[in-house]
């Protein structure tokens, strides 16, 4: 696969992924030509077309067009299946995905695509494994955001109460989610480091709350 484009019925580009080195000027030119060509085609026309020295495979889902460029020796039906699998991954992650999900969460769409395709080739065929990797990345991001929040509000007295209740929830979650135990321990360690110089009593209280 040379590249993948996602664009709306109005011709607005929502996502682009290039697997060949091209200049920005050439990318814009290709995008403009392909968007105009695909949108001009009628709904009942074939989803395959020849363009320059490449083959274009596209499919419309709701208000979005998924368009891929492949080489002459590549299989069009496999490419169509790749598009469908990517849509299934998006639908599974967002829950009935729509154009607004791509607009406001475009980084998630890129993450899913990168877990699914590598260098224009399929690297993971299992939807379960792809979604699991995305969930782990989301969890790490939540940990980072939480630690940043704690650091930014370390002088506020309210954060002590928030952390106390947070670790109460963590203690209950350990009985069901043993695989995320290291992440919670990391949060616990970060919180202790941030607050040990502020309140030794609070650190001892957290330790007692979590492990008793």
TrEMBL record:
Keyword Aminoacyl-tRNA synthetase, does the record have it?
Answer: no
- Record's keyword terms, sorted: Coated pit, Cytoplasmic vesicle, Golgi apparatus, Membrane, Protein transport, Transmembrane, Transmembrane helix, Transport
GO CC list = AP-1 adaptor complex; clathrin-coated pit
Its lineage opens with: Eukaryota, Metazoa, Chordata, Craniata, Vertebrata
Q: Name one GO molecular function term.
A: clathrin adaptor activity
Q: From what organism does this protein derive? A: Pseudonaja textilis (Eastern brown snake)
Which named protein is this?
A: AP-1 complex subunit sigma-2
Query: Which CDD domains has this protein been placed in?
Result: AP1_sigma
Q: How does it assemble?
A: Adaptor protein complex 1 (AP-1) is a heterotetramer composed of two large adaptins (gamma-type subunit AP1G1 and beta-type subunit AP1B1), a medium adaptin (mu-type subunit AP1M1 or AP1M2) and a small adaptin (sigma-type subunit AP1S1 or AP1S2 or AP1S3). Binds to MUC1.
């Amino acid at each position: 696969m040379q590249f993948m484009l996602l664009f709306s019925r109005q011709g607005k580009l929502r996502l682009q992924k290039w697997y060949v080195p091209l200049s920005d000027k050439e990318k814009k030119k290709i995008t403009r030509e392909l968007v105009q060509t695909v949108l001009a085609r009628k709904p009942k026309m074939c989803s395959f077309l020849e363009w320059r020295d490449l083959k274009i495979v596209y499919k419309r889902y709701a208000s979005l067009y998924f368009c891929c460029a492949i080489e002459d020796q590549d299989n069009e039906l496999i490419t169509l299946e790749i598009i469908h699998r990517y849509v299934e991954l998006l639908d599974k992650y967002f829950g009935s995905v729509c154009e607004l999900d791509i607009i406001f969460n475009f980084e998630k769409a890129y993450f899913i695509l990168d877990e699914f395709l590598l260098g224009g080739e399929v690297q993971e065929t299992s939807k379960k494994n792809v979604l699991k990797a995305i969930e782990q990345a989301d969890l790490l991001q939540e940990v980072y955001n939480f630690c940043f929040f704690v650091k930014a509000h370390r002088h506020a007295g309210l954060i002590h109460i928030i952390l106390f209740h947070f670790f109460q929830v963590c203690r209950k979650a350990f009985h069901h989610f043993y695989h995320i135990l290291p992440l919670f321990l990391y949060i616990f360690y970060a919180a202790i480091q941030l607050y040990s110089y502020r309140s030794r009593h609070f650190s001892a209280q957290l330790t007692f709350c979590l492990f008793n």
